[in-house]
Amino acid sequence: MRSTLRFPRLRRAATRAGVIAAAVAAVIAGSSVPAEAAGLTLTVDVGSVVRPATQVASGGLYGVGSDAQPTTAMLLPLNPTSFTQPAPGTTHLGNGATEPCCDSLDVGDNLIRAGAQQFIRMPDIYPTFPYQWQGWGDWESKVRKQVQDRLAETGMTNIHGWELWNEPDWTWNTGQAGSFNEGWARTYKLVDSLDPVTPIVGPSDSYYNHDRMVSFLTHAKATNTVPDVIVWHELGDMDWNSFDDHVADYRAIEDSLGIADRPIAINEYNSLNQMDIPSVALHWMAVLERHGAREAHRAYWFEAGTFDGLFTLQNQPTASYWLYRWYGAMTGNIVRTTPHSWLDGVASYDSSRKIVNTVFGGDSGNNTVRVTGLGAFGSQVRVQLLSTPGSGRHTAVASPTTVSTTTMTVSNGAISVPVNNMSAEAAYQLVVTPVNGPTTSWQQVYEAENQTVVNAQTRGASGASNGYYVGGIDNNTDMRSDSFVDFSVNVPQARSYTMTIRYANGTGAVSTHGLAYNGGGFSTVSYPATAGWAQFGTVQVTVNLKAGYNMIRLAKGAPNFNGGTGYAELDSITLT
After folding, report:
1. Are 476 and 557 within 8 A, CB to CB?
2. How big is the chain by its Cα radius of gyration, in Å?
3. Directed axis angle between helix 243-257 and helix 210-222, to 10°?
4. CA of 539: how far to CAs of 410, 491, 504, 572, in Å?
5. Cα–Cα distance for residue pair 271/481, rounded to 1 Å
6. Rounded Cα gap, residues 440 and 420, in angstroms
7. Which of 119, 238, 248, 526 gets the most CB atoms within 10 Å of its CB?
8. Is 290 helix (H, G, I), strand (E, B) or coil?
9. Lowest mean pLDDT: which of 14-18, 51-55, 120-124?
10. For residues 351 and 434, is the Cβ–Cβ distance under 8 A?
């Protein structure tokens, strides 16, 4: 759970009906991208913040198969947010598999080390899909066993949702089980009676449907079984064009029924036909970031355990991997991008290093990326352009291609970067820094709101670095409700580092957190009182880190830690 911050409801500037119609015609003809539309401009506004960078789209369905596929070391550069994994004790055989894969409790430690949370898909206890209903007695026995197995895993801190069913709009057996709405309420109450702490997510329809959502939420409100997180799937060709409409419609239904805003998770996105096209994944990244999803998971169409095509079966990176690695490197804030026809992108700005990182694509020909708001970068900037091709999931791509590295003059705080001979299926990265490069050779400042935030909230404040901080780090009951922030940091050398923690403590007395890294034991960090909440001070501690990626946890509560005292908020950490 990277964040529970509520973001503004955003809308497309205009409906591109003509372009969409042309694209539909192209798909019918056997192509998934437009033939050519030159002279387009993607605009990146560095000064217009959308939300903290949390890699909303960097998750997968059955994306992790074990500790070895992918390994934690392979996952960490992608900065994954969350996954949906099968039920404990799963017997599910997905898409031609010959043995069950990816039990959520079996892969959970790998995901924790990578900083990712997970939903448990409960009906995957059944072996076949669509699921073969065996009666209410059988189902409720299976539900009880799953919850009991999870509760026995007292060190498993990354279960952030029970998904009660999957695609009930066509897999629920109404003839034998009764209506889905009644079945949802009955299952919800059973799970809640066994585990009243872990969120419940759904309804998980295979596509967004207004009438079904109204019926479901009306019944759920009447039975006090409204999900904690709303889930649906987006699996059609070019469905990214409709995602903003779906979000707006869903929010209007909530408002009409008097239901408080729920986080939105799209735990299956991208179509069978377009899954392995980097530019299509880029379109999904853009709309998921722009229109307020909390998290989203790449769909499972083929082999489990490959992060849904980001790796080959031999654990080698594919073309799409490099797009997600560029996206995983985004820090600071997501800033506003304005698409032009099919040319779209996602951009971030890290003010601590002065880096603008833009991933983009979706059209062919000679196009332009215009970056504004660069006044703090000086009169000249360094501009690096990379690309990754449109190859599929069975083709290993050892590295992206460096297209160009140039120096450009900033005019009125802006540059216009020509990108010639674009491929409509490829994806591109544009990195803009001051002319001498980033202000530090490696990332030293890590914003708490960019990290894995568990049972706490991302909040905004003018005094917070980057404009956001993490508060509500209040719980230390058990592995389901413990509050902590996991910082994934990447350092150049194995050695001791001074870690400066920027925090706020409005209690008037000293508060404490537990500090652990890389699965080691906990020490105690003390936070003297500050002037108030969201009024920040600093403390320093020493951490001994290995070269490369490390996971640092600051916790009010966590397994193997007795619990912190008082309350403290976290703004950032700085390693020097």
Report:
1. yes
2. 23
3. 30
4. 38, 20, 10, 11
5. 35
6. 31
7. 119
8. helix
9. 14-18
10. no
**DSSP symbols for 504-515:** E--SSS-EEEEE
Judged against a pLDDT cut of 90, whether residue 401 lies above it is answered with: yes
In angstroms, rounded to a whole number, what is the distance separating the alpha carbons of residues 296 and 298? 7
Enter the DSSP assignment of 139: H
Note the pLDDT tens digit of each residue in 80-128: 999 999 999 999 988 878 889 999 999 999 999 999 999 999 999 999 9
CA distance 117 to 229: 14
pLDDT per residue over 450-506, tens digit each? 999 999 999 999 999 999 999 999 999 999 999 999 999 999 999 999 999 999 999
Q: Crossing angle of helices 278-290/243-257, nearest 10°?
A: 30
DSSP-derived secondary structure for 208-219:
--HHHHHHHHHH
Please tell me the predicted confidence (pLDDT) of residue 94.
84
Q: b or e along 110-121 (b: 16 or more beta carbons within 10 Å of the residue's beta carbon)? A: bbbbbbbbbbbb
For the stretch 125-173, pLDDT in tens is 999 999 999 999 999 999 999 999 999 999 999 999 999 999 999 999 9
Of 83, 81, 109, 43, the residue nearest 374 (C-alpha):
43
Taking only the tens place, the pLDDT of each residue in 333-355 is 999 999 999 999 999 999 999 99
Average pLDDT of the chain is 93
Comparing CA positions, the residue from 218, 318, 233, 320 lying closest to residue 270 is 233
Phi, psi of 475 (to 5 degrees): -105, 140
Q: Could you tell me which residue, 525 or 38, shows the higher pLDDT? A: 525
CA 504 to chain centre: 27
As to burial, measured by CB atoms within 10 angstroms (0-12 exposed, 13-18 middle, 19+ buried), residue 390 is buried
| Full DSSP string of 391-419 | --TTS---S-EEEEEEEEE-BTTBEEEEE
Q: Which helix (H) or strand (E) holds 113?
A: helix 104-113
**Residue 78 DSSP code:** G
Residue 576 CB-half CA count within 13 A: 6
Q: What's the rounded Cα separation, in Å, for the pair 447 and 558?
A: 21
- Residue 15: its pLDDT value, please? 29
How do beta strands 427-434 and 355-361 pair? antiparallel
Cβ burial 438-462 (10 Å sphere, 16+ → b, else e) = beeeebbbbbbbbbbbbbbbbbebe
Rounded Cα gap, residues 288 and 286, in angstroms? 6
CA–CA distance, 460 with 533 (Å, rounded to integer): 12
**How far apart (Å, rounded) are the C-alpha atoms in residues 236 and 271?**
5
Token pair 């403290």 is at which residue?
A: 568
Residue 297, C-beta contacts closer than 8 angstroms, at least 6 positions apart: 59, 60, 61, 63, 82, 83, 84, 265, 266, 267, 268, 269, 308
DSSP secondary-structure letter at 558?
B
